[in-house]
Fold these 3 entries.
Entry 1:
Amino acid sequence: MGQGFARVGAPDPRLNDAGHLDFRLTRQLRGYSRADPPPTRVKPIPISVIIHALTVAAASDTADSWAVADMACTAFFFLLRPGEYTSAPSDTRPFYLEDIQLFIGRARLNLATASDGDLQTATFTTYTFTTQKNGVRGEVIGLGRSGSPLACPVLATVRRILHLRAHHAPPDTPLSTYYRATPNRTSKHPVTPADVTAILRASVSALGPSLGFLPKDITSKSLRAGGAMSLLLARVDPDLIRLIGRWRSDEMLRYLHLQAQPVMQNFARRMLQGGVYTLLPGQDVPPIDVPPHNPV
């Protein structure tokens, strides 16, 4: 319509006095873009990619490698968006040190005064939502140990807390912050989505095409999808997955790929068994001649 006005020499009603698209239309179009599903889905990543990234971090044992791998691990298990576990332009904020709690059994640890040994024996961790997207302010979500010495949300959180505490980080420090020591000073750095994407792609490249996808198919958003897929394959109820991931609609289903072999492995067998049936006849279906019953 605006182009039609312009063709006849009339002012384009979409534009303001400066010749730019009107602010209200800009906001409206932005809202449409957020509501529309993305044209492509990210590939979910299996836990083997996380384990590889953490193994590489343990071998290099540098502050940046541990920070990136730990945040990737945390995002996978907690089904986090990139803006919640990295420093990224977003309509949400990352979790801060003050948002985290650790427990040994039912006993809550004081993160400021507990010994390193007590923190390392923590069995449960919780994250408190403040302004995170689709999170209820003040809501707490927690996870226990996974059983892995590396790929564990509790141990990954403990490693981040120990690192931040060693550098006297204040409570409002993002959990994804790390400090790099140099001969002259100690510098502070954030984990970015690009950092996470880089280590994930490096791990996918190292593990090879047997994963069923290529490094270019992976971004930092794949962690949320990977966590959801892992819960689905573990036969967790989809409604519970939606609750954990804070999806408010069926948009969650866009993250769950039928390409995952275990999902589809036995469907043909089950369809062969379940495909044997007849339907109750309608009135227009001719009756079947039944042989007369001859009582003995």
Note: Residues 281 and 287 are 9 Å apart (CA to CA).
Entry 2:
Amino acid sequence: MLFNLQGDTPAENAETAETVVVPVDDRNVVEKAKDWAIDYAPSLVGAILIFIIGRWVAKTVTGVVRRLMTARNVDPTLTGFLGNLVYFVLLTMVIIAAIGRLGVNTTSFVAILGAATLALGFALQGTLGDVASGVMLILFRPFKVGDFVETGGGTGVVEEIGIFVTKMKTGDNKAIIIPNSSITGGTITNFSAKDTRRIDFVFGIGYGDDIKLAKETLKELCETDERILKDPAVTIGVSELADSSVNFICRPWVKSTDYWAVYWDMHEKVKLTFDAKGISIPFPQRDVHMFQESA
């Protein structure tokens, strides 16, 4: 190896400049490499083995967890989410153990990781709330895919229950995406939860019409419709003497799948049958009486 020794000034450089050859013994480099290998190689090999074996164990445990949840008929969405969560936690522990095997102080590392996780939790507290709500929806199942529900400010048929959001479709084929926290934080009305539903009709007739004839007509219409259930029995009665009409309630029970079909058909049948039998369906009206006084 060559070194140039020079003074501080040009004159000194001219007088003292000379080339010094310092021999370097290659055996020193080899010895240092051997020392480094003896000191650090076992730790490095141990860290690699810990990572490889630990990752294999994490995958095995995650697979067992997923198979157990599948055997217990847990929702596939929740199975995938919890499986990924278990794998992430186990892999994090493996990485920390491998770093500790290299001689790194993992206490500070864990503290930094915990602080970062806490900060991330505060930043994503809304998202984490949606995740927790999604897990609750999948576990407790207040509704399932295909149910017609009203929740979170929307009404429609449930298409997908995800970890973060629930997707629904309206009757006119519009997509509704609702955060899960909005669903669990409010009221859920599931119209498909029960096999049967009651339809509440209100029909009005004129004060001059035959009440008994109107009642018998409604009863006949309900009995001739095969979609209306015999048990529970239909409830028909006068509910109100209103300003312009005598109002009847008619409450038949039907299967949930027949609700809207019967609802629409019944209105049409009542109008046509009442017209045929001379029963009027009055609209809101007001009688005005005028009096004229002589001068």
Note: The two ends are 138 Å apart (CA to CA).
Entry 3:
Amino acid sequence: MGSQGLGIDPKVVEAIALEIKEVNENGTEIGIVIGGGNIFRGLSASARGMDRVSADYMGMLATVINAMALQDYLERNDVFTRVLTAIKMEEVAEPFIRRRALRHLEKGRVVIFAAGTGNPYFTTDTAAALRAVEIEADVIIKATKVDGVYDADPMKKPDAKKYDSLTYLDVVKQRLQVMDSTAVTLCMDNKLPIIVYNLGVKGALKSLIAGENIGTIIAGA
């Protein structure tokens, strides 16, 4: 949403698409799990009195809108892309089938996983962990607004300490706002590392993929 506060900022989507294109051209297989908070947040709506299940499904549909927007900008930049959704809507995207997702990745297409897990009460963090395990990903890269994990919100506390590395248990025990505990536990059980980095830094994703020490890595017991 950029600085708009709501909706989709074309400049932001274009910048993200170019970052992904650069990495995709290097031969890296990329699966993307996209959120929908810029359009609708199910948990926030539930807290204001809306039925939680209905709110979560609305949030899942918001992720499909974002997935279609990202797909459009990727394809404008000559990146072959497929959107796979956990909720069937064949007119706009393919249903998620694991073998189909793997085949798209083998062919060098960027795969965007939309609609979370398709179930209420599960976040897009959990969807990211689940899809990563299913496609046998090497790593989850969580794109955020800050350059790693801190012991407090660096936007509010300038003296917050940044961690270069953490274990899965560190994240859970210290209740660090990285991913929800279900997602972190799933990664821990499958020995899937997580790297948190700042999406807003141009070229950071390419550098990270190239092996440079960027952001915070979460791995180990």
Note: Helices lie at 10-24, 42-47, 52-76, 98-106, 124-134, 168-173, 181-189, 204-209.
